[in-house]
Design a protein that fits this description.
The chain is about 45% helix and about 25% strand. It is an alpha/beta fold. It has three domains: about 100 residues, Arc Repressor Mutant, subunit A; about 100 residues, Periplasmic binding protein-like II (D-Maltodextrin-Binding Protein, domain 2); about 100 residues, Periplasmic binding protein-like II (D-Maltodextrin-Binding Protein, domain 2, 3-Layer(aba) Sandwich). The radius of gyration is 26 Å and the shape is elongated. InterPro entries: LysR_HTH_N (IPR000847), LysR_subst-bd (IPR005119), WH-like_DNA-bd_sf (IPR036388), WH_DNA-bd_sf (IPR036390).
Length: about 300
């Protein structure tokens, strides 16, 4: 009968093979796994055989020209994958603690923010920190906030700001929203329009889960109507294209430097803006590089105040 002491010993013996099991899960080939880890194939075979003997059941079985993890092997491989990911995160933190300017930041943001805000922000930051590397993740507000909570991204630029208790945020800027209509629309020549005047219009919108969709639904509800939605998309450029084709109207930020062909932008009366914030997990410490980027954004906000 096993006990906690036996489990601890097995865990200690599993540690050197964790990386091997993790790569085997991905490759299903011992030769490729050994090459990926930079060790001789016989060494990988002996390591796997010793671990199987220690566990007491095979961890792999032949599968064509490769191998396949058994149920027990997959359980250990899944645990090894999580352990290696945690260790990689720790190594990253140590490296960035020594030299945060050479760190890596995973930044999530809404599609609409990729046209000017994000490129400008990263350009200015890299003038001061040229060795910082960024991975950029785009998606809907819902997806980005979920990724932030799960820890797969470090920081996120979203609108409207999140209200989750486990997320912190700071408002970076406000962005005015306009009514986008076809250039031959009855309202196209107006300088401004009240939202209630759009009650009978057909709307083109982003899908539920996008921040702009949430804002549009809320504004229409406050104006006393539920919008009729003809088309839903995942990209603002697609939404503008549908507007230009005469298929509906939409609430969107201004298209810089001027509206695309076929689209007129009309200011709302009263004007409507949305707050864009930088958000992070309040329950998980930021990596040094991500903390430096967050402080850069904080400084920008304080300068603009």
């Amino acid at each position: 009968m096993t006990n906690e002491f036996d489990d601890a010993r097995l865990t200690t013996e599993l540690a050197p093979a964790a990386a091997l099991l993790r790569v085997l899960k991905l490759t299903s080939n011992l030769t490729r796994a050994a090459a990926e880890l930079g060790i001789p194939q016989p060494t990988a075979s002996r390591r796997l055989a010793a671990l199987s003997a220690r566990v007491g059941v095979p961890l792999t079985v032949p599968d064509g020209r490769g191998i396949r993890l058994t149920r027990v092997g997959r359980l250990l491989a899944d645990a090894s994958e999580r352990a290696v990911d945690i260790l990689n995160h720790g190594v990253r933190q140590v490296r960035e603690e020594i030299d945060p300017d050479a760190g890596h930041v995973v930044l999530g943001f809404l599609h609409l923010l990729g046209r000017s805000l994000v490129p400008g922000l990263l350009r200015d930051f890299r003038l001061e920190h040229p060795r910082t590397r960024f991975s950029l993740v785009q998606g809907s507000r819902r997806d980005i906030v979920d990724d932030l909570a799960a820890g797969t991204i470090d920081l996120a630029l979203v609108a409207p700001p999140p209200h989750d208790e486990d997320l912190g945020s700071v408002v970076l800027t406000e962005q005015e929203l306009f009514v986008a209509v076809p250039t031959d629309h009855r309202l196209a020549d107006r300088s401004s329009v009240r939202l209630a005047e759009l009650a009978d219009e057909v709307f083109v919108m982003l899908e539920p889960g996008y921040g702009l969709r949430q804002i549009t639904d809320d504004l229409c509800a406050k104006a006393g109507f539920t919008p009729t939605v003809a088309f839903e998309g995942q990209e603002s450029d697609t939404v503008r294209g549908l507007v230009a084709a005469g298929l509906g109207v939409a609430l969107l930020p201004a298209f810089e430097p001027h509206p695309p062909p076929g689209v007129a932008e009309i200011r709302l009366d009263p004007p409507v803006t949305r707050k864009i914030s930088l958000a992070w997990s309040a329950d998980r410490p930021l990596s040094p590089a991500a903390a430096v980027f967050r402080e850069f954004v904080h400084d920008r906000v304080r300068t603009q105040a």
